[in-house]
Amino acid sequence: MREILPVLGRWYAQGQPFGLATVVAVSRSAPRGPGAAMAVGPDDQVVGSVSGGCVEGAVLELAKEVVRTGRACLETFGYSDEDAFAVGLTCGGEITLLVRPVTAADDPAFGDAAAAVAGHRPVVVATVTEGPAPRGAALVVRPDHVAGSLGARGLDAAVTADARGELAQGVTGLRHYGPNGERREDDVAVFLQSFAPPPRMLVFGAIDFAAAVARIGAFLGYRVTVCDARSAFADPRRFPDGAEVVVDWPHRYLRGTETDGRTVLCVLTHDPKFDVPLLEVALRTPAAYIGVMGSRRTHRERMDLLRGTGLGEAELARLRSPIGLDLGARTPEEVAVSIAAEIVALRWGGTGSPLTGTAGAIHRARPGSGRPREPRAPDVRDDPEP
Fold first, then answer.
1. What's the superkingdom here (predicted)?
2. How many CA atoms lie within 13 A of 84 on its CB side?
């Protein structure tokens, strides 16, 4: 839902009611996961998606209906092949949607959630889906603030405690409680949707490839920073709106900025005097991905220099170089797609192979280790060997 919140926040601020459909449960090969959302606002304007197109027409009508009646509903869509014109998921999965009306008058907590997400502050939105508590009632939980109510003080207290625990883990899913928040009871189902601050993408080297990588990073939902020690290159006008541009030595900037297990680092400087000090710092951070541009010969020379800094083989094995997947990319935009593809594959445990040549589930659960599970194909884009 994060990607549609700017539009929802605008409707909300203007006093325009809208119907909000959120995926609260999935099974098998459902196309979108819990938390995916679609909204229908003024003049039947639609934003977002819950199934990639399979059931959006039916959801449009449901959203308009809940705005008209003021009552939330729960609807499940599954596979349908008996009637070619039936509403259902063609992929064979099943999704359950909570569709609820949102207005400033009836849901004062929604504004708190939208503002927190816009400000990159962590927040959890807890919404009743089933049970004696009012369906669609919402509670917004931040580390230091709570807004709204689920209808019972005990339920609010239990959900607040769980929401803050989920926020630390960035987890989204259903929880069950008794009517007053009793544990080990399942009368009330509550959907907890966590909005952790967006992950960071740090791009080092303000070359032409960096602008393309910054654009695709922002498209994927990263908070992008471009860093270069050369002020002539680190010009904000060369980069997309929203990207932070920093003039500093890369290793010094990285040492002083925040990284975590979701951060991705793209090192495009292609110069040992920048790369080696930077990578000595980078390989000691918890970053999920560290990709470095350069030929195979450059990479071998770089590895020798890095060993001289005291880095061990386990640390050096984290380097993804030559950077990106083997797509045959040439232009900056194509190379950016190649790098983004490698980041996505690493995040979800993909192999980078064509799906036509694979078997099993298309959509994967997030791997626990965050490390690649398959060897990377050779990158034929980089400079040829001498």
1. Bacteria
2. 0
**179 Cβ contact list (under 8 Å, min separation 6):** 131, 132, 133, 152, 155, 187, 188
What are the tokens at 28?
Answer: 């098998």
Amino acid at 9: G
Residue pLDDT, tens place only, 76-103: 887 654 543 345 555 556 889 999 999 9
Q: Which structural domain, as residue segments, surrounds residue 156?
A: 107-197
Other beta carbons within 10 angstroms of residue 308's beta carbon come to: 10
183/218 same-domain check:
no
| CA gap 269, 250 in Å, rounded | 9
Question: Same structural domain for residues 241 and 213?
Answer: yes
β-sheet with 37-40: strand ranges across: 46-48, 37-40, 18-27, 94-102, 73-77
What are 9-42's pLDDT values in tens digits? 999 999 999 999 999 998 766 667 889 999 999 9
- 208 and 353 in a single domain? The answer is yes
Which neighbouring-strand residues pair with 38?
Answer: 21, 48
Could you tell me the pLDDT band of residue 272, with boundaries at 50, 70 and 90?
confident
Tokens 């709204």 sit on residue: 148
Instruction: Check whether residue 229 and residue 178 sit in a common domain.
Output: no
